[in-house]
Write a structure and sequence with these properties.
Blueprint (H helix, E strand, L loop, with lengths): L2 H30 L7 H19 L2 H25 L4 H19 L25 H6 L3 H19 L1 H11 L1 H6 L4 H27 L11 H11 L4 H15 L1 H8 L5 H5 L1 H14 L2 H7 L13
GO molecular function, one term: transmembrane transporter activity
Main location: membrane
Membrane topology: Multi-pass membrane protein
Length: 308
């Protein structure tokens, strides 16, 4: 296998892992505030269809991604009101959002099936893109890939060194104690949920505006669920989310790797790898529940109201 093949595999791994990284990062921030949102798949689909329709009508990628983020935020606000204000089950509210988003996206995108748009262009960094092996993978990506790296760094610094990040973590561990200390529990949780919704919308739009680029029904193919498992796999740590996203991205392009090695493996079997890897990871994690509890926010998924 020559260097060009390795370069293309690394390049494809990063592109494939980017939507997973975005939605998983948003969900991690959400969960660090103690809120479990299982509606990532639905918000991704809504972002994908909203971004594609906007781009098709306006021919402006910035507006397309902005609308996708806004749609993700609006969907997350519905979840936040039901789960946080009405104290409904966060699991049920998230599942309802996924079902709603799947159905609504299919309805809105029915007239756009098979239509094409101009894809998000790559932004090669002059002088670096020709570096052997890593040049194309790291320095010839599109703007959303670079944005995802900036968001990872920003989130890491936010939770490690910023007082607001420490407040989010404190609320996730015990919102009652946080409230007694004067922390704005509900506002913080709302902002965390909205951040997760915005990234889910952008992740969905990345699929329809850059990765494919076209709209097809259920085009996320379960990536929202994989991202949820990825947060647990990463033990709610920012740096491990990035690594996990690219590992799952690599599993998703195993058909390219098999072709590079000349392996005759059924394509349907290879398509199962990301989901099989998800199951394996969850089974492995379930065997060490004590270690998992060390990193999981103590109030994750539990209802809370002032005076609780």
């Amino acid at each position: 296998m020559d260097l060009e093949v390795i370069t293309n595999i690394l390049y494809a791994t990063i592109r494939t892992g980017t939507p997973l990284l975005l939605v998983a990062l948003g969900e991690m921030v959400c969960e660090k505030s103690g809120t479990l949102n299982l509606g990532q798949e639905g918000m991704m689909l809504l972002g994908a269809v909203a971004g594609f329709i906007t781009m098709y009508q306006c021919d402006n990628l910035l507006i397309g991604f902005s609308v996708a983020a806004l749609v993700g935020i609006m969907a997350s606000l519905v979840f936040a009101f039901v789960a946080l204000n009405l104290n409904a089950s966060q699991v049920a509210a998230g599942l309802a959002l996924t079902i709603f988003g799947t159905g609504l996206s299919a309805f809105l995108g029915a007239d756009y099936e098979g239509k094409t748009i101009n894809a998000l262009p790559t932004l090669a960094i002059a002088g670096f893109e020709h570096i052997p092996v890593l040049g194309k993978a790291l320095f010839s990506q599109d703007a959303i890939v670079y944005l995802s790296w900036a968001l990872v760094l920003g989130a890491y610094l936010f939770f490690k060194h910023h007082r607001a990040g420490l407040a989010v973590r404190a609320i996730g561990e015990s919102p009652g104690v946080g409230n007694n200390l004067g922390l704005p529990v509900m506002r913080t949780r709302y902002l965390a949920v909205m951040f997760g919704g915005a990234l889910a919308g952008i992740a969905g739009a990345y699929l329809s505006l850059a990765y494919t680029p076209l709209w097809t029904q259920n085009m996320t193919s379960g990536r929202g669920w994989i991202a949820l498992a990825l947060v647990v796999f990463a033990s709610w740590r920012i740096e491990r989310v990035m690594l996990g996203a690219y590992l799952f991205g690599f599993a998703s392009i195993m058909h390219l790797v098999a072709q590079a090695f000349g392996l005759a493996i059924d394509s349907n079997l290879l398509a199962m790898l990301p989901y099989g890897a998800t199951l394996i990871v969850l089974i492995m994690l379930s065997k060490n529940k004590q270690k998992l509890k060390m990193y999981e926010p103590m109030w994750l998924g539990k209802p809370w109201h002032k005076g609780h």
